């Protein structure tokens, strides 16, 4: 990590060209913080957008119990930090979590002196875990998950990962499978409380606006939700000539918006980007969802969604928000990041699984052209999401 420092600065400059947020407060990445601060805050680390939204549910529950709670929120991505800014109250602080070198970690802890730390979902770093243990700072892992793939990686680096997991004061797992794998990695698991993301409420105004746009749209809309690198190259040939539906691509990462729009144009599709829409999306072969924080709008606009990250071996993105918005999902073969949620959604009738992109496109088109089947799947998704709510109250009681 120490040797990689110059490369990390170069990486930030490259990312910052597409997302300016990465160019802000760069020295915080190395444990150097300029703003004065007060000790004793509860520190919550949410690396990216999804973890920050899960943290928001936990923060609401904690503030209900202790209204004067002062928080320190840390992040690793620009989208996570932007979302986290909405959670800040009087007396709270926000910063980048430093890269995991001993010096940077010591500077972080010396500056903020947190009373305790909560890591969201997966973010366990060896130097940070060891430093918190040595200083007597309780460090917990909340809404914790660990896939078989990640467990295999942890085992390969067991001399680093096992002490890091063992240093955690508490671990609250999403599923029994996660609990078993976390225990195998060296953690002591205190309980299994489900996935906090089931308690997230989709933005009602965004959802209503998307549905209003959908009502004015003639052909049904199929969305590729949170697509990852390499997946659009699978999709575009599969939808060539498929004009019976309107296609909507929403890339997972903002730095890829231009790239995805260019790929669609190179494949011969006319495109229109969300950033230029006004009263409604204009006519185009492919719409590009190039905005952040508007997934409820896109799910409201779509009749069905292909699940990004599941058509390449990346483990799949979160399908819970789609279900809560009443948008049926067609998943690819790779859903190991959310394996239990994926299987439960399949059992509930809120999702379908396809072995390939071509098969998924066929399944999605068939679904949106069958009004009764699509409506049944949408209602199943809403029931599925509602049935698994309540994690916020259970988790808050345990904290």
Automatic annotation (TrEMBL):
Q: What is its EC number?
A: 2.4.99.12
Q: Where in the cell is it found?
A: Cell membrane
Keyword Membrane annotated = yes
Q: One MF term in GO for this entry?
A: transferase activity
Q: Say if the entry is tagged with keyword Transferase.
A: yes
* Pfam families per the UniProt record, alphabetical: Glycos_transf_N (PF04413)
Q: Which Gene3D superfamilies match?
A: 3-Deoxy-D-manno-octulosonic-acid transferase, N-terminal domain, Glycogen Phosphorylase B
Q: Which UniProt keywords apply?
A: Cell membrane, Lipopolysaccharide biosynthesis, Membrane, Transferase
Q: Which SUPFAM superfamilies does the entry link to?
A: UDP-Glycosyltransferase/glycogen phosphorylase (SSF53756)
Its UniProt pathway annotation is: Bacterial outer membrane biogenesis; LPS core biosynthesis
Q: Which part of the chain is the 3-deoxy-D-manno-octulosonic-acid transferase N-terminal domain?
A: 25-200
Q: Which reaction does it catalyse?
A: lipid IVA (E. coli) + CMP-3-deoxy-beta-D-manno-octulosonate = alpha-Kdo-(2->6)-lipid IVA (E. coli) + CMP + H(+)
Q: Please give the family membership noted in the entry.
A: Belongs to the glycosyltransferase group 1 family.
Looking up PANTHER family in the UniProt record yields:
3-DEOXY-D-MANNO-OCTULOSONIC ACID TRANSFERASE, MITOCHONDRIAL-RELATED, 3-DEOXY-MANNO-OCTULOSONATE CYTIDYLYLTRANSFERASE
Its biological purpose: Involved in lipopolysaccharide (LPS) biosynthesis. Catalyzes the transfer of 3-deoxy-D-manno-octulosonate (Kdo) residue(s) from CMP-Kdo to lipid IV(A), the tetraacyldisaccharide-1,4'-bisphosphate precursor of lipid A.
Spell out the protein name for this chain.
3-deoxy-D-manno-octulosonic acid transferase
Species of origin reads Ramlibacter terrae
Specify the taxonomic lineage: Bacteria, Pseudomonadati, Pseudomonadota, Betaproteobacteria, Burkholderiales
């Amino acid at each position: 990590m120490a040797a990689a420092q110059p490369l990390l600065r170069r990486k930030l400059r490259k990312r910052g060209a597409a997302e300016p947020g990465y160019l802000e407060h760069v020295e915080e990445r190395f444990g150097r913080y300029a703003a004065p601060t007060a000790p004793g805050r509860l520190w919550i680390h949410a690396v990216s957008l999804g973890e920050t939204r899960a943290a928001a549910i936990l923060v609401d529950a904690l503030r209900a119990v202790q209204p004067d709670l002062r928080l320190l929120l840390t992040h690793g991505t620009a989208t996570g930090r932007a979302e986290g800014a909405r959670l800040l109250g009087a007396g709270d602080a926000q910063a980048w979590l430093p890269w995991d070198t001993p010096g940077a970690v010591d500077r972080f802890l010396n500056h903020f002196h947190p009373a305790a730390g909560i890591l969201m979902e997966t973010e366990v770093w060896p130097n940070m875990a060891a430093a918190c243990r040595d200083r007597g700072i309780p460090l917990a892992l909340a809404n914790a998950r660990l896939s078989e793939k990640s467990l295999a990686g942890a085992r390969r680096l067991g001399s680093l990962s096992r002490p890091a997991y063992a240093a955690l004061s508490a671990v609250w797992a999403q599923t029994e499978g996660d609990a078993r794998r976390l225990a195998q990695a060296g953690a002591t698991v205190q309980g299994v409380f489900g996935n906090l993301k089931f308690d997230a409420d989709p933005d009602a105004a965004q959802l209503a606006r998307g549905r209003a746009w959908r009502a004015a749209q003639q052909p049904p809309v199929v969305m590729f939700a949170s697509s990852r690198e390499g997946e659009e190259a699978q999709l575009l040939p599969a939808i060539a000539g498929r004009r019976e539906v309107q296609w909507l691509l929403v890339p997972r990462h903002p730095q890829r918006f231009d790239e995805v729009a260019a790929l669609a144009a190179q494949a011969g599709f006319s495109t229109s980007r969300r950033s230029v829409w006004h009263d409604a999306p204009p006519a185009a072969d492919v719409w590009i969802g190039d905005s952040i924080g508007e997934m409820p709008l896109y799910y409201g606009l779509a009749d069905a969604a292909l699940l990004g990250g599941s058509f390449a071996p990346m483990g799949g993105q979160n399908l819970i928000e789609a279900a809560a918005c009443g948008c049926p999902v067609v998943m690819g073969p790779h859903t190991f990041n959310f394996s239990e949620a994926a299987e439960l959604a399949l059992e509930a009738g809120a999702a379908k699984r396809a072995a390939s992109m071509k098969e998924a496109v066929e399944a999605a088109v068939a679904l949106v052209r069958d009004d009764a089947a699509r409506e049944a799947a949408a209602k199943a998704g809403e029931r599925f999401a509602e049935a698994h709510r309540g994690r916020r109250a259970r988790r808050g009681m345990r904290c």
